[in-house]
Amino acid sequence: MHACTHVQGVIRCCPPSHTATHRKPLPKAGRLALAKQHYRRVLQRAGAACPLRARLRLGECFLNSGDAGVAEDMYAACLDNSAAAMQAWLPAWAMDGGGVACGGKRCAAAWLGLGLSRARLGDTHAAELCLAEAVSSDPEHPRVWGHLALLALRVGRDADADVALRQALRYGLAAPELLTSLAVAQQQAGRFGAAAALLRRTLSVQDGVQARCRLAAILLASHEYEECQAELVAAAALPADDADRVMLGDILQRLRDAWPHL
């Protein structure tokens, strides 16, 4: 069967996602709401003794549910509490001028969360300062370097983005959502080769219809029609939802328009 005819046929009866064959899962918003309730109870019961990990998780829940302002406050409180705890047992010479424990004693995860919160709130400069603190705390944190690269790409500082991205990949960046965001930013900057490489890395971590469709779209824009068709065929063989099928069908139609050979 002709490859693109096969893709079109599969789109009509594309395999459903694995979760569709079992009990319908709780929507993401519902899972986040339950998680926030859980961590809030932990925080209320433990008070000042609440583990830092629980505070960080609560901040992450707020950030992922769109409450960047509340997440910002939560991450800032994590850093304040961490600094207070360090002051209680570290000698004065081990503290920097701002009262936060120096070097690796600072919480890279909290600085990262604070930076992401401020980026969501539109304060790019403050976000970069927080991410720089996170790098100072943990120079080998791949997600910190990845987000630094993403911020630099979004403000047009391609050289800075390249430096940060090399560090992220050097330290093993393997977060599919962040890799995809970086690929999209590279594509928007007209850097199709870099975008395709990041999407291939995404697929090596987690295969999926949307990542393959994004890669197919880049290959289409680069006039690499056979490679685009191959990605669409591979995408059509994967479990998909309605949004995936729409995306797949759209790129297939664009390929047909661009490549009379079909």
Fraction in helix: over 70%
CATH architecture of the domain at 43-139: Alpha Horseshoe
Sketch the topology as an H/E string, one letter per element.
HHHHHHHHHHHHH
Q: Name the CATH class of the domain at 43-139.
A: Mainly Alpha
Number of strands: 0
Flag low-confidence runs.
13-27, 85-105
Ends distance: 13 Å
What's the total helix number? Answer: 13
Structural class: mainly alpha
Query: Which fold does the CATH topology of the domain at 43-139 refer to?
Result: Serine Threonine Protein Phosphatase 5, Tetratricopeptide repeat
Summed over residues and divided by their number, the pLDDT gives a mean of 81
**Beta-strand residue fraction:** under 5%
The dominant shape is globular
Rg computed from alpha carbons, rounded to a whole number of angstroms: 22 Å
Give a short account of the largest sheet.
Answer: none
